[in-house]
Amino acid sequence: SSTRLLSKARNVGANYLLVRAFYSGTREGTLVGNTGEAAKCLRRAIATAHEQGLKIFLTPFVESMEFWPEGKWRLSVGEWTDIVLHWAQFAEENGVELYAPGFEMALIMGKVEAKDWFKDILPRIRAVYHGKVAFGEIPYGEQWESLDENRVFEGYDAAGTTIFPWKDYDGVHDMRSFEDLKRHVEEQVQKLNELGRRYNTELRFVATLGMDFWQGEEPYPTTRAKGYEVCLDILKRYGVTGVFLHKWASEPDHLGRS
Length: 258
Description:
By secondary structure, this protein is α/β, with parallel strands linked by helices. It is built from 8 helices and 9 strands. The strands form 2 sheets. A 7-stranded parallel sheet has the order 1-2-3-4-5-8-9. A two-stranded antiparallel ribbon has the order 6-7.
C-alpha cells in the first residue's frame, strides 16, 4: 500500500515527497486532465505523507519530451498559467512546503514566451502561496541559455535541476559505465551550485534524478540502485541540499525491466 511504502521511505531517510499533478497535452495547445479529481486524490496523499512525517514538494506536470524534441504537443501559456495558480492555491490550503510552476518549462515553451512567463508568474504565485517557490529545469541548451542570460529566476527561493545521465557514444545516447555516469553527474552538479550562487540561494536540489539509459536498455533495479548510490555520493560531496529520485524500488524486482 502507499502508506507502507511511505513508511519504508521515511525509515531509509526520506524527508520530502515529490507530488505531481499530471496533465497530457494536445497538438492544439489545450491540456487534458481532471483537476477536480486530482485535487481529491492529492489532498489525501498529502495528508497521509504529512502524517508520516514527510514534507511535500508539489508541481503541476506535463511531459516535456512530447514538446521537445518530438514536437507532438503545443502548450497554451494562458491555460498553463491558470493551472499553475490553481495548484499554488491548493498548495497553500494543504500546507505544502515547496512548490514549482512546472518542470523543464524551458523545453516546453518558446524561449521568448518562457522569458516573460517565468518573471510574471512568480509574484502571482506569491499572492496565493506563502511557502517556498522553486524552479526545476535542465541547465543546458539554447532555450535554457536564453532564460539564464535574462535572469528570469531572480527571486525564486530554490534552484532545482533535472538530471537524467547520458552520453553521446558516436551518435547513440546511452550510459555504459559508472565512470561515465559519475562524470556526467559531477558536471551537472557543478552547474547546479553555480545556479545557487547566481541566484543567491543555498537551497539547491536535484528536482528529479533518473536513470533512463544503461547499455542499450532501461537499467535493472539493482543497477539503478548502484547508480543512485554513485550519484548520491557526488551530491553529498558537493553539498547539494537534496534530491528527488525518479524511480526507486523497495524490493529488488519491484520495477523489473519496465
